[in-house]
């Protein structure tokens, strides 16, 4: 597999900035296929562009610009997947007044393929979250939360495999421990599980099911702390994950970490408020059958 290009698209205009190029060895000789993964995180209900008095990022963001860029990239003809790594809720009065309906409806119209949950998705309680998930036109991936017995039971998937022009992309979701971040009453019935163990299980399962590429949608934060597992430790302590699309820390960057078997894992995150749209072009060389 080759992560041929990683871009950030600034949502002030349709400007493409080449941020990094990472190359990974593919398999034996075979036909190459290139697919594109687009991703957002921590958009925080920024439905319209950032206000003119907000300094450097004034005018960036907004759903209309994001949709315009997404449509343009899809028109290029590559297979495209569109993911979000959580906290698409909360941050402007639109969420408070309309209870997240605008966000999930707009993301459905933009054609999101899957999302994971951020801590702010719980801000109005598990029951209200379940209502929004039912309204959504895309799956919610959550491999490290047990919602048994709560209103969210049966409303998430741990992972999903997408067939993109013959390339099987396996994606799974992870969310930070909400204790201390979310009122306990609002997260009642949501049981947090170790993200490292859950990630390894998900990656192993996806590989066993034939995934060519494994992507983690994470709302953990870029770096670990004494209290929380971040993307850096997640990558280092697991194997089988190719790409981590991160969230929570509102950081803007691209890094690589060696996994426990020595392979490279690429980690990306796209700041916050929908200022950037991430793009990763992945070239997969399918192995010839013996």
Automatic annotation (TrEMBL):
A Pfam short name: Metallophos
Database matches in InterPro entries: 5'-Nucleotdase_CS (IPR006146), 5_nucleotidase/apyrase (IPR006179), Calcineurin-like_PHP (IPR004843), Metallo-depent_PP-like (IPR029052)
Molecular functions per Gene Ontology: hydrolase activity, acting on ester bonds; metal ion binding; nucleotide binding
Gene3D superfamilies membership: 3.60.21.10
Signal peptide range: 1-18
Domain Calcineurin-like phosphoesterase intervals: 36-251
Keywords: Signal
Family label: Belongs to the 5'-nucleotidase family.
Name used for this protein in its record: Metallophosphatase
Organism of derivation: Candidatus Merdimorpha stercoravium
């Amino acid at each position: 597999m080759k992560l041929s290009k990683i871009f950030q698209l600034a949502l002030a205009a349709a400007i493409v900035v080449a941020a990094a190029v990472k190359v990974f060895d593919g398999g034996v000789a075979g036909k190459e296929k290139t697919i594109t993964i687009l991703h957002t995180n921590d958009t925080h209900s920024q439905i319209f562009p950032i206000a003119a008095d907000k300094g450097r990022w004034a005018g960036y963001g907004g759903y209309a610009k994001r949709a315009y860029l997404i449509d343009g990239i899809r028109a290029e003809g590559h297979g495209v997947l569109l993911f979000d790594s959580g906290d698409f809720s909360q941050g402007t009065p639109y969420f408070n007044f309309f209870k997240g309906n605008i966000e999930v409806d707009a993301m459905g119209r933009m054609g999101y393929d899957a999302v994971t949950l951020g801590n702010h998705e719980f801000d109005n309680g598990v029951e209200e979250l379940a209502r929004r998930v039912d309204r959504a036109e895309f799956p919610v991936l959550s491999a490290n939360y047990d919602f048994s017995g709560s209103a969210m039971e049966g409303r998430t998937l741990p992972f999903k495999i997408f067939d993109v022009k013959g390339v099987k992309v396996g994606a799974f979701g992870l969310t930070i421990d909400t204790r201390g971040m979310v009122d306990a009453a609002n997260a009642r019935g949501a049981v947090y599980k170790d993200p490292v163990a859950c990630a390894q299980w998900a990656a192993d399962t996806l590989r066993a099911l034939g995934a060519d590429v494994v992507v983690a949608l994470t709302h953990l934060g870029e770096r670990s702390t004494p209290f929380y597992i971040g993307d850096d430790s997640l990558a280092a302590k697991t194997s089988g994950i190719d790409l981590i699309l991160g969230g929570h820390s509102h950081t803007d960057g691209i890094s690589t970490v060696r996994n426990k078997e020595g392979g490279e894992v690429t980690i990306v995150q796209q700041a916050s408020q929908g200022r950037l749209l991430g793009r990763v072009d992945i070239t997969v060389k399918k192995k010839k059958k013996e």
